[in-house]
Q: What sequence folds into this?
C-alpha cells in the first residue's frame, strides 16, 4: 500500500466570497501545495470543469442559479466527472438536503460552522479512500494496456 | 485563529448582503402589503440571511449568527408556506436589518450594543402569532407528477414544496429540455431563467450529461399558467423537448380563460437584479487603502515628471546645440503627464460608488423614527445612481441621519395635525442627489411645518447670540440654527437629536470641503441642501508662502483673498483686526503661529471661517492654484492643530495643508 498521491487540486463551489476564502485557508493549512479553484456558482463550475484536472470538489447546496444537489446529480451521472469525490459543505438546518446529496452520490458532508481541522479530516479520509479504491486513476495507469 | 484574518472581507461581504436584503425587501414589501407571495423574492431573502448566518457562525460571531439564524428560520417557514406573508412580517424583516446592522457594528467594536434576548423574543412572539395551522393527512400532490426518482432527489426540500404548491394551485408544470452551446450556456440560461420567472416560477435547473463536449443540456422544471403552445416563443432558444408533467392530458388547468401568456403584475423596476446575483467572477473587492497607495504612487510619479520637465527646460537654455533632441524629450515627458493624468482619473473613478447604496439604510432609519414618534412618513429617493467617493459617503451618513431625524421629529407633524391643515396624513421626506459640475448636491426636503423662526430667534436671544432689539432677516435666523450648541427642541425624546446640534452637521460637511444651506417655509416644509466635492482625494488648493515655507489652503475653505494694507489694520485688546467689508475680522499671522517669521508688513489675507468665527490668515504671498492630493500625517506628531495633512506640489519637499477650522482652535483656544 502506497501513501497515495497527494491531493493537488480542489474545486470549491460556494457563493460567499468569505466562505471561499475560509475553505481555501483550511485546505492550504493542511494540504501543502494544494491548489484551490474557487467558483461562485454551479454554472461557473460546469464551465470550468472540462479544462481542469480536479481531484476533489467541495460544494455548498444553497446557491443561486443552480442548487448544489442539481450539480451533484449531474456530476455523479457524468461519464468523466463521476469519479471525482464530492464533499458537501452546508448548514445544520439543511439536514434533509444533505441526506439527498448523499443519496445522489456525494461522499461526505461537513456542517457549517466547521473548524479547519474538521474539514481537513473529512477531505483526507475521502481522498485516501478514493486513492485506495481507485488504483487505476487515469494519470497513473492508462485505461488500456498492451496485454488487453 | 485562521478565521479572524478574514474579518475585513467578512465585514465587506456582510454589508453587501445587508444592502441586498434591503433592496429585495423593498420589492417584497410591495407584494406583501397586498398579501401576495412572491416565491423568488422570499427565496432570495432566505438565501441572503442564510449566507450571513453561515459566515457569522464560521467566524465565531455567535450573537450575530444566533440572531440571523432565527430570522432565517422565520423565512424558511414563510417559503415553506407555514407562515403567511403579511405587513407584520415585513416590519419584522425591516427591524431585523436594523438589528443586524448594529450586531455587525459589535463585531468591529467588540462591545455589545444590543439586547439580544429582547430581539430574539420579538421574533418568537411573531412566530407564535403568525404560525399557520398545518393541515396534514393530505395525499402528496407530488405523487401526481411524472417525476423520476433521481430528479426528485435533486430537488431541495424547498423546491419540492414549491412544486407541491404549484400543483395545489392548479398551475401547469413543464419539463423543458434545452441543449445549449457550451461557449455561452450560462448567458442563455440566465436569460431563459429571467423570462421563465417573469411568466411563472422556475423551480429547478438540472444539468444533463451528454456526449457532445461542445454542448450541454439542461432540464428545467417550470410552473406556470402559460399554455403549451406558447412556451417555445418565450424562450431565447427552442427547447429540444417539452413535456407537460401536470395536469395529465385532457384535464383543463384551473382558471381557464386567462390569456395564454400573462406576465405577473410587476412593480416598476421590481426585477432589477440584486447585486449579489450579478456576475461575481468579473469583479474584485479592493481595500480603499490599496487604491490610495496606487494613487499616491501615481501622484509621486507625476511630481517626478514635472521635475523632469523643468530640468529639460533648463538644459534647453544651456545647450542650444541639442535643442532638437531636448524638444523631443520634452514632448515625451509632456505626453507622460497626460497619461499620468488619465491614470489618476481612472483611479479616482474607482473610489466612486452610487449614493443609492445607503438609501436603504436611511429609509429603514426614517421608518423606525417615524414609528417611534407615532407619525406617518414616506421616503422618496431620487438620483440613487449619483456617484461619489466611498469615504465621503461614509462621512456624510452622520449629517444625513441628523437632518432626517430633525425632519421626522420636528418637521413632519402628527397625522391628526396634518389632517387638520388639509395635508395628507402621511408626510414625505425626499432625498435627492445630483451631480452639479464637479460637485454633488444632496437635497433633503420634508413637507412638514417648517422651521419656527420666532422660536429660533427667542432661543438665540436666550443664548446671547443676538440682541433682543436686533433686526434679523430670515437668512440670519437660519444661520443661527447651525451655531454651536444651538437647539430649540423643547423636549428631548428618543427621536430628537441626542444632544448633537446642527453645528456638528455643518462642521462635518465643511471638513469635507462642502457647504450646507437651509430653506424653510412656514407650513410647507424645510429643505437642506448640501454641496460636496465628488471626491476627497484631490482638492483644488491655493498655494501660499509664509517666510521660507509654503502651505496649501483648500479652496473650499477660502472665502476671499484680499491685499493687506497697513491702513486696514487696527489693534483691539491685543488682537489685530483686519477691516473687511463693513466690519473687521481677527487677523492671524501664520508666520507667528508657526514661528516662521516676525515680519509685520503687508502681504495678503485669506479670509475664511470656522462656524461663526470669521478670520483672516495673513501670508506673504499667494503663489498659485493647484490640485493637491492630501495625505495624512502620522498622529505621533504632537500638536497638529491647524494642519490637516501634507501634499506634494511638485517641489523638493511636500507642503503642509492648512485646516483653518482647527487653526482657530489653536489661536483662539477659549472661544467657542
A:
Amino acid at each position: 500500500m502506497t501513501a497515495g498521491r497527494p491531493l493537488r487540486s480542489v474545486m470549491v463551489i460556494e457563493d460567499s466570497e468569505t466562505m471561499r476564502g475560509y475553505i481555501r485557508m483550511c485546505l492550504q493549512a493542511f494540504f501543502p501545495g494544494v491548489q484551490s479553484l474557487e467558483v461562485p456558482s454551479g454554472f461557473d463550475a460546469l464551465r470550468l470543469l472540462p479544462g481542469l484536472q480536479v481531484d476533489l470538489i467541495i460544494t455548498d447546496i444553497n446557491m443561486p442559479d443552480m442548487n448544489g444537489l442539481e450539480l451533484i446529480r449531474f456530476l455523479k451521472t457524468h461519464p468523466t466527472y463521476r469519479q471525482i469525490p464530492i464533499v458537501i459543505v452546508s448548514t445544520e438546518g439543511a439536514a434533509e438536503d444533505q441526506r439527498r446529496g448523499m443519496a445522489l452520490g456525494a461522499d461526505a458532508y461537513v456542517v457549517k460552522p466547521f473548524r479547519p481541522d474538521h474539514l481537513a479530516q473529512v477531505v483526507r479520509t475521502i481522498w485516501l479512500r478514493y486513492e485506495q479504491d481507485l488504483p487505476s486513476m487515469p494519470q497513473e495507469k492508462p485505461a488500456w494496456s498492451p496485454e488487453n | 485563529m485562521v478565521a479572524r484574518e478574514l474579518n475585513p472581507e467578512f465585514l465587506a461581504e456582510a454589508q453587501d448582503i445587508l444592502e441586498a436584503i434591503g433592496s429585495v425587501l423593498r420589492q417584497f414589501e410591495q407584494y406583501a402589503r397586498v398579501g401576495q407571495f412572491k416565491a423568488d423574492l422570499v427565496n432570495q431573502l432566505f438565501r441572503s440571511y442564510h449566507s450571513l448566518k453561515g459566515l457569522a457562525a464560521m467566524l465565531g460571531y455567535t450573537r450575530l449568527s444566533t440572531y440571523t439564524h432565527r430570522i432565517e428560520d422565520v423565512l424558511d417557514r414563510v417559503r415553506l408556506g407555514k407562515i403567511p406573508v403579511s405587513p407584520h412580517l415585513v416590519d419584522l424583516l425591516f427591524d431585523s436589518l436594523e438589528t443586524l446592522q448594529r450586531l455587525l457594528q459589535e463585531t468591529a467594536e467588540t462591545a455589545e450594543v444590543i439586547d439580544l434576548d429582547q430581539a430574539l423574543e420579538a421574533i418568537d412572539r411573531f412566530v407564535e402569532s403568525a404560525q399557520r395551522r398545518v393541515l396534514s393527512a393530505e395525499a402528496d400532490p407530488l405523487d401526481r407528477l411524472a417525476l423520476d426518482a433521481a430528479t426528485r432527489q435533486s430537488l431541495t426540500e424547498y423546491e419540492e414544496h414549491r412544486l407541491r404548491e404549484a400543483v395545489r394551485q392548479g398551475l401547469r408544470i413543464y419539463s423543458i429540455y434545452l441543449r445549449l452551446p457550451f461557449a455561452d450556456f450560462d448567458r442563455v440560461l440566465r436569460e431563459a431563467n429571467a423570462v421563465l420567472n417573469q411568466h411563472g416560477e422556475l423551480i429547478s435547473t438540472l444539468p444533463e450529461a451528454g456526449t457532445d463536449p461542445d454542448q450541454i443540456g439542461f432540464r428545467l422544471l417550470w410552473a406556470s399558467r402559460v399554455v403549451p403552445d406558447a412556451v417555445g416563443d418565450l424562450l431565447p432558444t427552442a427547447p429540444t423537448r417539452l413535456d407537460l408533467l401536470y395536469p395529465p392530458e385532457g384535464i383543463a388547468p384551473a382558471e381557464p380563460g386567462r390569456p395564454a401568456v400573462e406576465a405577473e403584475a410587476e412593480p416598476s423596476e421590481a426585477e432589477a437584479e440584486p447585486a449579489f446575483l450579478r456576475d461575481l467572477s468579473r469583479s474584485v473587492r479592493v481595500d480603499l487603502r490599496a487604491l490610495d497607495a496606487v494613487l499616491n504612487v501615481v501622484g509621486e510619479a507625476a511630481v517626478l515628471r514635472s521635475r523632469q520637465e523643468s530640468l529639460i527646460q533648463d538644459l534647453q537654455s544651456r545647450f542650444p546645440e541639442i535643442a532638437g533632441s531636448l524638444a523631443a524629450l520634452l514632448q515625451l515627458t509632456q505626453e507622460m503627464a497626460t497619461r499620468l493624468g488619465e491614470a489618476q482619473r481612472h483611479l479616482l473613478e474607482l473610489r466612486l460608488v452610487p449614493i443609492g447604496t445607503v438609501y436603504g439604510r436611511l429609509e429603514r432609519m426614517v421608518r423606525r423614527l417615524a414609528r417611534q414618534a407615532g407619525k406617518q412618513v414616506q421616503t422618496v429617493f431620487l438620483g440613487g445612481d449619483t456617484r461619489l467617493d466611498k469615504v465621503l459617503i461614509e462621512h456624510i451618513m452622520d449629517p444625513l441621519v441628523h437632518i432626517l431625524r430633525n425632519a421626522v421629529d420636528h418637521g413632519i407633524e402628527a397625522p391628526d395635525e396634518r389632517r387638520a391643515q388639509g395635508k395628507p396624513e402621511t408626510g414625505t421626506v425626499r432625498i435627492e442627489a445630483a451631480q452639479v459640475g464637479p460637485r454633488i448636491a444632496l437635497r433633503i426636503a420634508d413637507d412638514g411645518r417648517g422651521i419656527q423662526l420666532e422660536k429660533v430667534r427667542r432661543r438665540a436671544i436666550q443664548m446671547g447670540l443676538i440682541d433682543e432689539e436686533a433686526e434679523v432677516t430670515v437668512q440670519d435666523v437660519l444661520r443661527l440654527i447651525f451655531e454651536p450648541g444651538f437647539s430649540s427642541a423643547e423636549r428631548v425624546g428618543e427621536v430628537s437629536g441626542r444632544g448633537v446640534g446642527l453645528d456638528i452637521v455643518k462642521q462635518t460637511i465643511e471638513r469635507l470641503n462642502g457647504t450646507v444651506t437651509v430653506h424653510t417655509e412656514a407650513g410647507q416644509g424645510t429643505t437642506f441642501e448640501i454641496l460636496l466635492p465628488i471626491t476627497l482625494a484631490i482638492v483644488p488648493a491655493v498655494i501660499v508662502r509664509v517666510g521660507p515655507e509654503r502651505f496649501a489652503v483648500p479652496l473650499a475653505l477660502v472665502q476671499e483673498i484680499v491685499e493687506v494694507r497697513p491702513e486696514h489694520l487696527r489693534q483691539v485688546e491685543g488682537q489685530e483686526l483686519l477691516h473687511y467689508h463693513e466690519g473687521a475680522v481677527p487677523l492671524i499671522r501664520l508666520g507667528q503661529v508657526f514661528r516662521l517669521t516676525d515680519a509685520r508688513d503687508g502681504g495678503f489675507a485669506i479670509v475664511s471661517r470656522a462656524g461663526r468665527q470669521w478670520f483672516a490668515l495673513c501670508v506673504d504671498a499667494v503663489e498659485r492654484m493647484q490640485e493637491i492630493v492630501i495625505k495624512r500625517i502620522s498622529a505621533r506628531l504632537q500638536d497638529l492643530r491647524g494642519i490637516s495633512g501634507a501634499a506634494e506640489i511638485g517641489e523638493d519637499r511636500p507642503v503642509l495643508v492648512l485646516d483653518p477650522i482647527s487653526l482657530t482652535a489653536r489661536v483662539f483656544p477659549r472661544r467657542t
